[in-house]
Design a protein that fits this description.
This protein has 486 residues and is mostly helical. The chain has a single domain, classed as Amino acid/polyamine transporter I (Up-down Bundle). It is built from 18 helices and no strands. Helix 6 runs parallel beside helix 11 and helix 11 packs across helix 16. It is found in: Membrane.
């Protein structure tokens, strides 16, 4: 394995890759040892060749393209259905502005996280630490670079963030399935899709999500463009109104949802660790955000243009679009995507739980069995709190704003605060960063912290609390069919 010299290129060169894969290194997705067993012994047979081809094609996903698929699948999903409602709460201009604004901040803070990962891994490998059977995680990076308090803070905020997003995926599957077949209540659909989603515990790491993340990108792309075309062909409803922004509560409820949609880099570290060349992830995520914006802004504008204020009373865009085979296909596709997203956001929790139990480096079957309680807990929470959607906006404002936006900025400043640390940093500054300079980076980070704390944590929490108060009378533990028609 190539060392992380200078942080310029982390991972294997093309010539090193086959040997690296046989070694089952951490760069290759931590648990490839059992996946490679027996390949060498049967290498001369056609069956082995087919098996090897299928593994390389479907199973081993450590390229920049795989990272892009994972990032897009994690970044865009259920928000496709709720983003038009955010535009109806904010209006065209403010909707597009905050969509772009929070995406830019998301790209920047993801860049900081990527640099922190490179710095952490470089330092540790220079010390002789072997990551061949260990997946590096967010809280470990901050604990080593910043201190124990940062590790605990990152662990606290990120566990709640990724856990909440995972729970929402199961609830969203049930909600979408109810649109497709209302003969079964949402609780029944939650039971069904909770059980199906548990199958993701069989995937060893994010390195093995290639085919699933491809499906995730394909399904969300179809759904976004279906909504755009369906809205344009439907035209504006009679007497359509576009009243947004109406008041501060609805306005900041909309901005909070967009902030939540821009926080997909909560699993940045795990995606990077699954790459063969993780130093390239900062470019991968930039490409990811360009793609996400290209499919979410057009459909959000089009659906709001066609249905206007009607979206204020409908959080799921499927609810305003007319029934058709294309709509039914979109619903099925979104269910598929949400199952993929559940797996991506559950994976960090799996790794944390494995480490807590001391089985993270144990054989595959022990890790799978150890993960089962994590999946069961998320399934239980989805059944117990079907009204989790309104709560999710508060979780986004209070927790995701810290885990994916504020904490990376603080950690970066502390990590490279001294001249010595900047002189010895693993990844030497490129031309844009040299132009900005250290003081410029500190200024940018401070502005991000201030903006996110005021708009996201402050006004976002305010709007979320008011929204919850408005709906609290409809909340019910283990409710059979939350917000269903009588």
């Amino acid at each position: 394995m190539g060392a992380l010299d200078g942080g310029e290129e982390i991972g294997y060169t093309d010539s090193e890759l086959p040997a690296a894969m046989k070694k089952g290194t951490a760069m290759n997705g931590s648990y490839d040892q059992e996946q490679q067993t027996g390949d060498a012994a049967s290498g001369g047979h056609s069956i082995s060749s087919v098996k090897s081809f299928l593994k390389k094609t479907i199973w081993h996903g450590g390229s920049v393209y795989d990272a892009w698929l994972n990032a897009v699948a994690a970044q865009v999903g259920q928000v496709i259905l709720s983003m038009p409602t955010s535009y109806s709460q904010m209006g065209y201009k403010w909707g597009v502005f905050f969509h772009l604004f929070y995406s830019i901040i998301g790209v920047y803070t993801c860049y900081l996280l990527a640099r922190l990962y490179v710095e952490y891994r470089t330092r540790k490998e220079r010390e002789g630490v072997d990551f061949s059977t260990h997946v590096i995680q967010y809280h470990e990076v901050l604990g080593s670079l910043v201190g124990l308090w940062a590790q605990r803070a990152a662990l606290f905020f990120n566990v709640i963030t990724v856990g909440a997003v995972a729970v929402v995926q199961i609830i969203a599957c049930a909600s979408n399935a109810y649109y497709l077949n209302p003969h079964h209540d949402k609780r029944t659909w939650t039971i069904v899709f909770g059980a199906i989603s548990l199958l993701v515990i069989l995937l060893p790491t994010i390195h093995n999500f290639r085919i699933w993340s491809f499906l995730g990108v394909l399904t969300t792309t179809y759904t976004a463009w279906y909504m755009f075309i369906a809205s344009i062909t439907h035209g504006q409803t009679p007497n359509v109104k576009h009243s947004a922004p109406i008041n501060l509560e609805t306005f900041f409820t909309g901005t909070t949802n967009i902030l939540f949609a821009s926080g997909g880099h909560a699993i940045t570290i795990e995606i990077m660790h699954a790459m063969w060349k993780p130093a390239k992830y900062k470019y991968v995520y930039l490409a990811c955000c360009f793609y996400v914006l290209s499919i979410t802004i057009p459909h959000s504008v089009a659906v709001y243009w066609a249905f206007g204020d009607e979206l204020l009373h409908q959080n799921n865009a499927f609810g305003v679009l007319p029934s058709s085979n294309a709509r039914s296909t979109g619903i099925i596709f979104m269910i598929i995507h949400q199952s993929v997203a559940f797996g991506l956001y559950m994976m960090p929790l799996n790794f944390m739980w494995e480490k807590l139990l001391g089985v993270h480096q144990s054989p595959y079957i022990y890790r799978v069995l150890a993960r089962l309680p994590v999946g069961l807990l998320l399934w239980f929470l989805a059944l117990a709190f079907p009204f989790f959607g309104p709560l999710n906006s508060m979780i986004g404002a209070l927790f995701m704003s810290f885990s994916t936006f504020i904490i990376p900025c603080v950690a970066y400043i502390i990590t490279f605060w001294t001249p010595k640390s900047r002189q010895n940093e693993a990844e030497k500054p490129n031309k844009p960063r040299r132009i900005v300079g250290w003081r410029g980076m500190v200024t940018l980070n401070s502005l991000v912290i201030l903006v996110i704390f005021v708009l996201g944590t402050g006004f976002g929490s305010y709007a979320s609390v008011l929204n919850i108060v408005d709906q609290v009378k409809s909340f019910g533990i283990f409710q059979k069919c939350y917000q269903c028609s009588p």
